[in-house]
## 1
Amino acid sequence: MQAKNSKIDKVWRIIDLINWGEKYLKEKSIENSKIEIELFLQHLLKCKRIDLYLQFETIVKPESLAILRKWITRRINNEPIQYILGSSEFYGRPFIVNKNVLIPRPETEILIDISIEELKNVNSPLILDVGTGSGCIAITIALEIPSSKIIALDIDERAISVAKNNVEKHGVKNIEFVVTDIFHEKINKNVDMLISNPPYIAKEEVPGLMKEVKDYEPLVALTDNNDGLMFYRRFAEIIPSILKKNGMAIMEVGVEDHPDRVEEIFREYGFNDIRTELDLNKDKRALVIKNK
Ligand code: GLN
């Protein structure tokens, strides 16, 4: 499939498109080119990966080829495949995404594992998710712990509207959404757990991010426009008015010295029950703090 201007008289079978796409995307420096062309074709033809190979001789219609061509053009301009397809996986489930929400990251899944473990002996836990974005954390917890009740906050109502679509998609009932700016509004709650994957990239690090991230993902979800620690300072400040005694906060943290700097903030605020959890790459990825 020529990217431009070719008169499409050639017949394209699924297998031809897989072979072409793998090579073309790789030439354009897309790393997992085979997985990506397979994903594009699965969405295009509404089938599973295995079906692509079971029906590899099937001829793809010109209308479908036209759609695929548009998608591929967007992809080689570095737009993330999840935004092109409008969908991303988190904890084994599909979530609707668009440019108003961060694409869920596999590293964030450990926040779910930790919550499930920590809440296993808590009856009908009440949870506050700060910066819910696509709602991936809130919805996954709601599904994994059906007795839980979750309040999910975000500053951006466009993000909340994506999260609400995801709630509908997954048929979840136990989440309440609130559009709020936690820096300017007072939150008085009495919850068992605060969970958050806040914007933690420092303003000065934004220019160095991958194009996929800095040109397409919402800045408000990536950076606090400061030193990458603003949200943690605010959490340290408001935890006493949010968490029950013995309640806990589970927060994602960044790379290099970021986890240690976050820990230091909480120590300065007098918290001393602090634990760090590693992700699958053995990087510090989450901080778990118990309220005094
Ligand atoms: N909670 C969402 C996620 O983990 C959004 C996080 C954010 O926007 N910083 O993907």
## 2
Amino acid sequence: MEVVLNSKFYVTTPIYYVNDKPHIGHAYTTIISDTLARYHSLCGDEVFFLTGTDEHGQKIEQSAKKNNENPSEYVDKVASKFKDMWDSFNISYDKFIRTSEVEHKNSVKNAFIKMFNKGDIYKGEYEGNYCISCESFVMNAILCPDCGKELVKLKEESYFFKLSAYEDRLLKFYDENPNFILPTYRKKEVINFIKNGLEDLSITRTSFKWGVEIPNEVAQMSDKEHVVYVWLDALMNYLSALGYENNLESKMEFFPPDIQLVGKDILKFHAIYWPAFLMSLDLPLPKHIAAHGWWTKDGAKMSKSIGNVVNPSEVVSEFGLDVFRYFLLREVPFGQDGDFSQRAIVERSNADLSNVLGNLLNRLLGMGEKYFDNNLDSLSFASAYEVELKEVEDSINIAREYIFKVELHNYLESIWRIFDLANLTITKKEPWKLIKENKYNEVAELLVFISNTLIKGAYMLYPCMPASAKKILSVFSLGDDGFGRFVVNKEILTSVKLNHIPPLFPRLEVKEEIKQEIKSEAKLEPLSIENVIDRDYFMNIDIKVGTIIEVEVLPKSEKLLKLRVDLGETRPRQIIAGIKLYYEPQELIGMQVCVLANLKPAKLMGEISEGMILAVKDDSGLSVITPHKVAQNGSKIS
Ligand code: MSP
């Protein structure tokens, strides 16, 4: 992917519903955004980091009622819980927006008028179902396809946005901007949603009151009181926060957003509705929408009724903010689901933070004090460690590429390569033996090298774990302003004075009740599963059953056969398969096979291949995978 450093960087979190207090899912999005904001600040970009609360809609109105409060008092109370939490977590946001602010409401109204004047809004009636929990209109279903909750029936006057008119422009945009949706494998579900037919979107509601009233200019002819649909209202926050069409000081030079973090459940709203609204307003589209996966707790979905909702403040008070941040960013590949448990956080912290990073720092401080009274000097270290220093720079470069894809797990893993290399180098050099042989110069070289790995590593770590990185840098009397020197300009130090700090990441103990859990699980031998993927990822892999209807021998190839496979589509697929050594063409005709159907077509021996036949190969040869019973051509394997 192209690595572009902007001079301006605009990053957003979703704005959180104030129907309940913040939980780990909210903390996750916010911490990822904070990491990106901090990284870009270090790079010298001018950053605008936006977060806030989504305070209108039927769900909030109902929650207020349940709490016997009026909506406005209720939202004030809950919004402050979010703001207080982010403040106590030192989140570096530039603005905390609340959709109940008058400036935001003005932006929404003015945008509504613009869309209306453009001819993109018309009056009609919505008749269908609605999910109050997701605040989303759902046709033809009894339960919400996203959250599984029961739907309510709606029949009400409504203004509609001509979403269907934007179908082609949206598809063209995704095509021309293949990295718009991150991870890119999520693009397919968005495209499928559109290809199934985009209906016009109901954008006002009349059966409750708690929302932005539609402007008089538009509502003149209406006999009902309309409030703006909460998703149109909410999405506009990314504009209103910058002073779009309101009285705030304009910061529209930050628009469009560089990256917008969302959970996978709200990708549709951000990758379809939001770009269509922006097209209607003649505004540029965001550069990336990055969708993360969902957290479960001890393997179960979090829910208030089960009482297993993880409170981020409790985790932070037990393990510390940076351990929590590290866990969230490192534990799951960006985009995939993750499971939170006390045990997972303890294991992750002990394995990476205590055993690798903490241990490295302790080794340096221990040897530095013992052998050199904390004063390390070596002019020759850079030539002695030329290869290792190159490895460090390589890891840094690799890590920096990952940040642009929001692959923060890989970013951290690349930084850990630096710390692993440093630990390994100490083990290999055996400085305790060198000292006995009076080879002080060699040990000084080693320790200056280690110091430089820690300095560079700490600057890279700073966006993810700011407080810990600062502590590491304080060992070398450095502040948090050296990213340019040590990372961008690749500076190294040849002389270091070590300051001692208390051990950074003491090993954590697994609590008694967790030990019990481990015991009860002990019967199942743990398996090490490589390259784990989640369900959603697998759902994007399209394997279908098909029947081979024609086989052609390619005379120039020893291994390849040209097949025509009926997958129940408008025409059979042409598939070039490397099975010639194992099958006679005749025995293949009529055979049902499993085909990887959404593999990018490629040319093999000059022939286009539109899929891959699945087969297994062992010592006895190759065997094509075939369903146990005959299946309809085109049936999906899941
Ligand atoms: N208000 C809307 C967003 C409007 S943005 C214009 C909303 N709010 S929310 O509070 O319900 O969710 C906010 C974010 O939290 C979403 O990105 C959602 O994916 C995320 N999470 C909620 N529960 C989660 C987990 N269990 N795990 C990870 N993130 C999840 O949607």
